[in-house]
Design brief:
Elements (H helix, E strand, L loop, with lengths): L5 H5 L2 E3 L8 E3 L4 H30 L2 E2 L8 E2 L3 H7 L4 H31 L5 H8 L7 H12 L6 H8 L7 H4 L1 H26 L3 H9 L4 H12 L1 H15 L4 H6 L11 H11 L3 H26 L4
Antiparallel strand pairs: 1-2, 3-4
Helix pairs in contact: 2-15, 3-15, 4-9, 4-12, 6-9, 9-12, 10-11, 12-15, 14-15
Length: 312
């Protein structure tokens, strides 16, 4: 009988059957058993990092706790009752949804358009690509200041100057159209992100399919709709999921420009929580708003992200 030698056993298999040349069966992996002690510290830290703030928020949501009038007392569901009966709540939720879905639509449209334009060869393409993704690396507060003071200012802003060139009255965007101004700022910052992902996906598009479609007489619109767009379903799904996560937490652009106003015209759920916690010092009501925000985020994730996740 032929000897298997020590190398056959080092490969992770043992012989079975009546002879040494029988079927080789894999050994039970020992590595998976030995790695959990190494993973446990990081998993524990992440668990504490996520669970402790949630538990504390839930606990404070049942307390009547104002930083100006300590100590905290148990209030039951009073904070939730006040929150759900607030006449501004519906408008605040609506603002939050508008600041999610409208910028997503704008960033997808212009991101796809710019990706198609920058996909083709032209002089200075590398420099142009670098410049077009620059807004994504600008901090939200800084981009809001740029648009507030340099672009949309009704006196010395660039848009006001362009209006005057065509004999139009400059518009005070943050007073007359505050939500549109916030959407412009957010979309300007995130269009490069969408363009970068879609442009990367276009690099992997099979050019032979495009050429075959052209030879069959397909026009540019038909090629985009039947060849390019199906190829982009997966990156578009990734963009929608990531932007949904970030747009649900828009805060800096609102704080720097409109401070939630006029009235509550641009107040979303994160800014509402901030105003209750750090302007009214009502920790209990702010915590109830935080729990409400978690529920809204999970509802959006269930009905919205789940629908597009099938493309992944």
């Amino acid at each position: 009988m032929r000897s298997l030698g020590p190398s056959r056993f080092r490969s992770g298999f043992v012989p079975t059957g009546p002879s040494a040349t029988g079927t080789l069966m894999p050994l039970k992996p020992q590595r998976a058993i030995r790695t959990w002690p190494l993973l446990l510290p990081s998993v524990a830290v992440l668990g504490v990092w996520a669970i402790v703030p949630l538990v504390m928020t839930l606990w404070y949501s049942f307390q009547n706790y104002n930083l100006q009038t300590p100590p905290a007392t148990f209030g039951g569901f009073s904070n939730y009752y006040y929150l759900l009966t607030d006449p501004d709540l519906f408008g605040i939720v609506w603002n939050s949804l508008v600041l999610v879905f409208v910028p997503i639509a704008i960033t997808l449209f212009f991101g796809t358009l710019f990706a198609l334009l920058y996909d083709g060869p032209f002089p200075g393409r590398s420099t142009a690509r670098l410049l077009v993704i620059t807004p994504f690396f600008v901090m939200p507060a800084v981009s809001a200041l740029v648009w507030k003071n340099l672009m949309l200012n009704p006196v010395w802003g660039l848009v006001a100057w362009l209006f005057k060139l065509v004999d139009l009255q400059p518009v005070d965007w943050f007073a007359s159209y505050p939500m549109a101004a916030i959407i412009i700022i957010v979309s300007w910052s995130w269009i490069p992100f969408a363009m970068l992902i879609i442009l990367t996906s276009l690099q992997s598009l099979d050019r032979e399919q495009v050429e075959a479609a052209r030879m069959d007489g397909a026009k540019s619109v038909g090629i985009f709709y039947y060849v390019t767009l199906p190829h982009l379903y997966r990156p578009i799904s990734v963009i929608i999921m990531l932007e949904t996560i970030f747009f649900l937490s828009i805060y800096a652009e609102i704080y720097v420009t409109t401070v939630g106003g006029p009235g509550t015209a641009t107040t979303n759920i994160p800014f509402y929580i901030f105003s209750r916690a750090l302007l009214s010092f009502d920790v209990g009501l702010a915590s109830a708003g935080g729990i409400f925000a978690i529920l809204i985020a999970n509802i959006v994730a269930f009905f919205f992200v789940r629908a597009i996740a099938r493309q992944l």
